[in-house]
User: What shape does this take?
Amino acid sequence: GQSLEQPSEVTAVEGAIVQINCTYQTSGFYGLSWYQQHDGGAPTFLSYNALDGLEETGRFSSFLSRSDSYGYLLLQELQMKDSASYFCAVSGSARQLTFGSGTQLTVLP
Amino acid sequence: EADIYQTPRYLVIGTGKKITLECSQTMGHDKMYWYQQDPGMELHLIHYSYGVNSTEKGDLSSESTVSRIRTEHFPLTLESARPSHTSQYLCASSESPRLQETQYFGPGTRLLVL
Assistant: This one.
């Protein structure tokens, strides 16, 4: 089976940097993805890591360590609009996505 | 960017009614998915399809059924709705074959069964 763990809530102020961690257990591993979901909205794809290291996309970066079964999403220069839920998801041997329970990020002014 | 549509967006219905949630995508994606998500909770895969005439049940047991007669269309049906079916239902699609599994989600259907 597959399981993922991520913090349920994170709070930070505008302009700050926040890191959302994700640890996973999976049978077979192809990659770790991150999705953003605003209240009432659809999840949208943010980033994907298949290999160890850091991937940067604008203010967002994602890191993966396959040996540690660990990854994180780094959000820099936080803005109010970044308040949302962030889900890590692992693509395993079944080539589907298994999602974590999500981290609710609240950005304060 | 994928275009994926779901109707209705909101549905309030009585117990015992039959309902069909529609999902269509215009990108020609082979793979399509249905997820169930309660407020503030994770997404649970309930059905998926890797192409026409291919459907499988997901990790979460569901009393719903799906069909895939056309590539672009993946409807979900509940024969007899119950209050326990109250939830948000999200449809998604992805391109195959791709090493990177990036899923594109529709706006969701919020279902309330009274």
Remarks:
- Chain B has a mean pLDDT of 92.
- The two ends of chain B are 37 Å apart (CA to CA).
- Residues 20 and 77 of chain B are 4 Å apart (CA to CA).
